[in-house]
Amino acid sequence: MSILPKKNSLGFYGIRLESIGGLGANLAGKMLAEAGVLGLGLNGSNFSSYGSEKKGSPVKSFIRFCDPDTEIRVHSPIMRPHVVGVFHEALYKTVDVVSGLPADGIVLVNTTRDFDEVKEDLQLEYGTLAIVDALGIAVEEKTKVNTAMLGALFRICDFLDPEAMKQVIRKTFEKKYPHLVEANIRTFDRGYNSVQFKEYKVPEGAEGKTFKLPEPQLGYETQEMGGIITAQANSITKDLSGSRQGFIPNLEIEKCINCAQCDTVCPDFCFIWEKRKDKRGRDQMFLEGIDYQYCKGCLKCVEVCPTEALTDIRETIGFAESNRVARNFPRVSGGVM
Question: Quick one: pLDDT band at residue 20, thresholds 50, 70, 90?
Fold first, then answer.
């Protein structure tokens, strides 16, 4: 008798992890597959898909499970997953994370927001939504988001054995990072115990999300006139919000002494200055704010600020946009200078 709760027409139970580089989704997928294969004797496979292997770039990890008597002869991306795990909410801007999700599918999101807000952002109509504050757990335990997400995924995939996952965690970390073993097991347990669920009733005959293959941005039909690249890394229009891993600098301007130490250490020139007269009538540079469009959340500015005018806060959706002080690029005739 199969222990898998659901299977597609080929006999597979599919899980897709949607993340950004730096949050450990690639490793999480490997560990999840290993726990199912070695712990339960299932057949399983895992691979990840990403472009440039760097912090902040979109990452997908695919995990297939099937019964021991079923061969895995398919190694393509999972287009109709039973479960989707979303590691970072900034992905909503550029990636259709629920593409191909069946009507009765389950979405796990790393968030502190309530169910209905997340449902609206994902444009879900029905199915099961699970939320867990994986980042908060990881910060408190000094680990990474991936282990907390694994704990929540094991609660969702209740056919898997949590003890098998703990053995995989020990095996993964004990040689190179033995001091992180117990912290990661605590993180896993907290993710497992703190995930919350809300089910939105699926109408009879309801269809799931249509799978849409993203169109290439630089194809002959989609390229901008003049060869302009408007995606991440463009010096004018880039958006680094996906590179931030949950925290952002917050400026209390009344505490600022305009010492410019933040500007000295900032690798992306995020701080905006204006030349004004001081109380004695001398020309001085005064800090106006932060252009969060270019901030990747390294928090070096927070470390060097002598007056605590800069502090790190948990980023919430909309904070960067509403508190951004935009950089005005000088223009000359014919383009940007």
Answer: confident
